[in-house]
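Q&A log
Question type: sequence-to-structure
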Amino acid sequence: MNEGAGCDAHGRSGLLTTYIQYQASIPRPSLTDTDIGLPLPPSVLTDSTCKILHEELALQWVVASGATRDLAMQNSWALFELMVKSMVEYLYWSGAHEAPRKARFPDQFTDDLTTLVNNVTSEIISGSVTFK
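Response status: OK
Response body:
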């Protein structure tokens, strides 16, 4: 990242920020060619084996410990950007943007996200981690 990559006022890599915003494509569950471009079918949304990126990222971050947790905290801006992009694409492809606000995401994800926000807030207040 240091090879000619400029950073913004917050110390974030401009190249990585631009990549996440414009180029990163969030993987969708395997669909047939006829499903491409269509909203996610209900079977995908209720399939417990299907991993949605923002849900899995939040879960893994919440359960992380040691060096993995420290590294995630130091690079939290990039992980949050990926989560936001995945959430937006999920709302679009699932059609959940038309659902009531509290029903747009599964309860487990909102619980993990609440825990994650509390953890990050605690880290900021305690000053025990240096955010980039």
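Response note: Residues 14-126 form one domain.
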